[in-house]
Design a protein that fits this description.
Number of strands: 4
Helix content: under 10%
Number of domains: 1
Shape: globular
Distance between the termini: 62 Å
Largest sheet: 4 strands, mixed
Structural class: mainly beta
Order of helices and strands: EEHEE
Strand order of the largest sheet: 2-1-3-4
Strand content: 25-35%
């Protein structure tokens, strides 16, 4: 039997799409791949969210990380979404 050592981290700094004031997090697109795993593996999780909503506004089935794993949460500002930049070809 081959056993692998568990993933451990002191801090996980993640960015979520939406979160409530208790720390429940919802991720979008590729952030859903490793962010929830890192939240559960770290001792302290610090989450930056695009939208900070009141408790109870998130649908329970859509929560990817429950608040028990998140120690700090704050709403970021002035997001620049480089991937959504519009480009036009020269004619």
């Amino acid at each position: 039997m081959i056993l692998e050592k568990p993933l451990k981290a002191d801090f996980a700094i993640v960015r979520a799409w939406k979160g409530d004031k208790w720390g429940n997090l919802v991720f979008r697109k590729t952030a859903r791949n490793f962010s929830p795993m890192m939240c559960t593996a770290a001792r302290i999780t610090i989450a930056e969210v695009e939208q900070l909503v009141e408790v109870g506004e998130l649908e329970p089935d859509s929560i990817h990380v429950p608040s028990v794993y998140v120690k700090r949460i704050f709403q970021g500002a002035n997001y620049q979404k480089w991937i959504e930049k519009r480009t036009v070809r020269a004619a």
